[in-house]
Design goal:
single chain, TIM Barrel, 8-stranded parallel sheet, 8 strands, 335 residues, 12 helices, alpha/beta
C-alpha cells in the first residue's frame, strides 16, 4: 500500500515520537534560564529562520499528532495553521519569520503568508528537484527575487530527491543566488521515519544529508551564503568542520530544538558553541503542522544552561541579522 509522507509523519508520531515523551518530561523538571532567571527574556526579539506554510485549503488531520506531546493539532486546515502560527509568533515576540512552502504549490503557500503578514513574514522559495517536485523555471525565481516577492532560496530539499547541493542541476540556481546575493537554506541531516519508502522520496538517503557533501557547490560558487538547516544533525563533526573551513556557512536549529530529547539537543548545540561557532547559529523551529512547536523551540534554547544572555541574543536574532543582511533586520533593536 502506498503511504505518503504525511502518513509517515503520523507513524513517526506513534512509534518514534511517543518514545520521546519520557525524555522530555524528565527534562521539563530540570529546565533553567526561565523568565525569572533572565529579566530580558520578555523583551527579547526573535527571528525564526525556519518556518513552513501549507496551502490554505489543505486539510490537517487530527491523526497528525505532535510527535513530542502526543496531542492532535487544534487546527483543521492550512489557513487556520497560518493564523495559529502568527498568534504564536506574536505571543513569543517572534518579530520576523522566514517561511517556505511545505507541500503542494510551495511558492504560492509562502507567498500567501507574506501577503497576510507582510511586516512579519519573509517568503522563501522551496525547491527540490525530484520528478514529482521539479525545479521551477529559473526565470520565475529570478523575477521573484528581483521584485522581493521571494528573498531566500530554500528550503532546498535536495536530499529528498536523492541529490545534494553539489549536483550540477542546481548550478544555475546557485549562480542566480550568487548574482543577486540571495541566501540559500538547505535541508541537511535526516528525515521522517520511513521516508525512503514514501513514493515521493524513494531516492532519499540519510547519507546525502551529510553537510560535507556540499563542498563542491561551495567551491564552484564562492560567494554563496548557506544556512545548514537542522544544523547537520546528527553529523556533528562534519558540521563543525564545515563551519571552520567555510565562513559563509551558518546553521539553524530547526526541528532539532524540539524533536529530539532535550539533553541531545543541548549536547549538540553545546558542542557547536564550544567549538567557537556560537555566532553562526540561527534560531529556527521547523514547526511543520504544529504551531506550538515554535514555543517548544524557544524554550529549548532559553533553557540551555551553557548559554549566556549574550549568546541567546545572538542565536535568537543577532546572527540572523548578520547572515541574511536584510535591511529591516538591521533596524531591529536587539536586547
Amino acid at each position: 500500500m502506498a503511504i505518503d509522507r504525511r502518513r509517515f509523519l503520523k507513524l513517526g508520531a506513534g512509534s518514534v515520537g511517543m518514545s520521546m515523551l519520557a525524555h522530555h518530561a524528565a527534562a521539563a523538571g530540570k529546565r533553567v534560564g526561565t523568565e525569572t532567571d533572565d529579566p530580558m527574556r520578555r523583551k527579547r526579539l526573535i527571528i525564526d529562520v525556519h518556518l513552513h506554510a501549507y496551502p490554505a485549503d489543505m486539510a490537517i488531520e487530527p491523526s497528525l499528532v505532535n510527535p513530542v506531546t502526543g496531542k492532535p493539532p487544534q487546527i483543521k486546515n492550512g489557513e487556520e495553521h497560518l493564523q495559529a502560527c502568527l498568534a504564536e509568533m506574536k505571543r513569543l515576540n517572534v518579530v520576523k519569520g522566514i517561511v517556505s512552502g511545505g507541500t503542494g504549490d510551495r511558492l504560492a503557500a509562502a507567498a500567501h503568508w507574506r501577503d497576510v503578514a507582510p511586516d512579519r513574514v519573509i517568503a522563501g522559495a522551496a525547491v527540490r528537484g525530484s520528478e514529482d517536485t521539479p525545479l521551477p523555471e529559473i526565470g520565475i525565481l529570478r523575477n521573484a527575487f528581483q521584485t522581493g516577492q521571494m528573498r531566500v532560496l530554500g528550503e532546498v530539499t535536495a536530499e529528498y530527491a536523492g541529490l545534494t547541493l553539489s549536483d550540477r542541476k542546481f548550478d544555475p540556481y546557485l549562480s542566480l543566488a550568487e548574482e543577486l546575493d540571495i541566501p540559500v537554506s538547505l535541508h541537511t541531516g535526516t528525515g521522517p521515519p520511513g521516508i525512503s519508502f514514501d513514493p515521493c522520496c524513494r531516492a532519499f538517503r540519510v547519507s546525502l544529508g551529510n553537510p560535507a557533501l556540499i563542498e563542491d557547490a561551495l567551491n564552484r560558487h564562492p560567494k554563496l551564503r548557506v544556512n545548514l538547516m537542522h544544523a547537520g544533525w546528527p553529523y556533528l563533526q562534519e558540521t563543525i568542520a564545515m563551519l571552520l573551513v567555510y565562513p559563509q556557512v551558518y546553521v539553524d536549529v530547526g526541528a532539532i530544538a524540539w524533536l529530539p530529547p532535550r539533553p541531545e539537543f543541548h549536547a549538540y548545540l553545546g558542542a557547536i558553541t564550544r567549538a567557537g561557532f556560537g555566532k553562526r547559529v540561527l534560531f529556527g523551529t521547523d514547526q511543520m503542522y504544529w504551531p506550538e512547536a515554535i514555543g517548544m523551540a524557544v524554550e529549548a534554547v532559553e533553557s540551555a544552561p551553557f548559554l549566556t544572555v549574550a549568546d541567546k541574543q545572538d542565536i535568537f536574532a543577532g546572527n540572523a541579522i548578520r547572515f541574511f543582511k536584510f535591511e529591516e533586520f538591521k533596524k531591529l533593536e536587539i536586547v
